[in-house]
Sequence to fold (198 residues):
Amino acid sequence: MKNRKTLHRAKNEDLDPVLIEWIRQRSKDTPLTGLLVVKQARIYHEELNFEGECEYSGGWLQKFKKCLGIKYLKICGEKSSPDDEATENYIEEFAKVISDENLSPEQIYNADETALYRCYVPRKTLTMANKRATTDVKDTKQKLTVLECANAAGTHKIKLAVIGNSLYPRCLKGMHNLPVHYYAHKKASVMGNLFQLV
Fold:
């Protein structure tokens, strides 16, 4: 009796086939998020004139996905994994340089870059269980790259460097004093010559 479960039927069973077909059609072209599915369920609820109220929440979405075999698939991003062996070798080599040169945390700096997308493509999509991830979805090229740099002690942070596609973007027209260093590159990427400019 402890394992006994009660079968609860969906309030609007007619919605499921319509919404599943919408997911099938839509997931071919564009990535689907849970919010889009919930929004579409509410639209169909009104269009099909279902009686009573139904709260299309995160809980409803989880049950809907589990019941109908809908899953998230990763559709874009970095394909290669980091080289763990090279990383381990670098850590040992770097520790030796610090020891040999007798460097303090104030003298050790780390720089890293991150991409800031203006029109972002979701990394995952909802699709039926028997479908595979599409491989032709790519990140948008409309981005800025932000380069941050600080010392290991956290006492000195260098002014951010922002790399855009255009040297004179319209959004910065008339601005003379920016709180960041601004540079341009056709792919908005950090290049070696940038370090000579800073």
Remarks:
- The beta strands are 70-74, 109-117, 124-128, 143-151, 157-164, 181-184.
- The mean pLDDT is 77.
- The CA atoms of residues 146 and 162 lie 5 Å apart.
